[in-house]
Amino acid sequence: MISLLSPHIRSTFAGVCLSIGLLGLSPSLQAQEKPLLIEKINPQLYLYTTFNTFEGTKYAANAVYLITKKGVILFDTPWDSTQYQPLLDSIKQKHNLPVIAVYATHWHEDRAGGFAYYNRIGIPTYATKMTNDLLKANHKAQATHLVSTNKTYSVGGQSFVLNFFGAGHSMDNVVVWFPEYKILDGGCFIKSSEAQDLGFTADGDIKSWKPSLARLLAKYPEINMVIPGHDAWKDKGQIKRTEALLTGGH
């Protein structure tokens, strides 16, 4: 099931969860100059956005971090490699807490690209076995620890679950559920409400995506907030938009 794209194609496209032809990007996002944005979701959960450029156009990647009594947990790494350390510095300055763990929701560059850096400076990194196998197969740095899916983890008074509902954007994509807040970090498994298409799917399984999404909705029928992997995240309708795109809607 592993994609056999040539090295040239993979180096160009791997990790790009959004469509290069995306037309719905807001002008303010295209004009964004700050390489790192941090926004508060609630007192314990923050969203951070980093950017990368393809053919002269800048795109955004969303990820979250969780404040616990023991320290901060990152879910996914910055897409921009120049922001690996600045993110840590910003968190330390903002919260006076260290980052104690980094989890990846799948193997692409915008999610696990920072593993090599965080491994080097001694921060524990976590991924599923499938994600680690794909990282290894694609000659990328692997997580130092394996994580189980569909299990509640409790750290410093906070809880989260990494769920795997099946293939979609990638073969290994997981989502993160924060049960106390009923917030879903969908990663690239969930599209933005303004997405124009499914984006990069060469490493995934489009036919499996819709039933995988149905399993997610059966598990979590009540969700207060859904965070997509890319683009605008404050709007509602991300799941409906993802469903529409999977059924050929526009």
Automatic annotation (TrEMBL):
Domain of life per record: Bacteria
One Pfam short name: Lactamase_B
SUPFAM superfamilies tied to this protein: Metallo-hydrolase/oxidoreductase
Gene Ontology biological process terms in this record: antibiotic catabolic process; response to antibiotic
E.C. number: 3.5.2.6
Keyword DNA damage: no
Complex and partners: Monomer.
Family affiliation: Belongs to the metallo-beta-lactamase superfamily. Class-B beta-lactamase family.
Protein name in UniProt: beta-lactamase
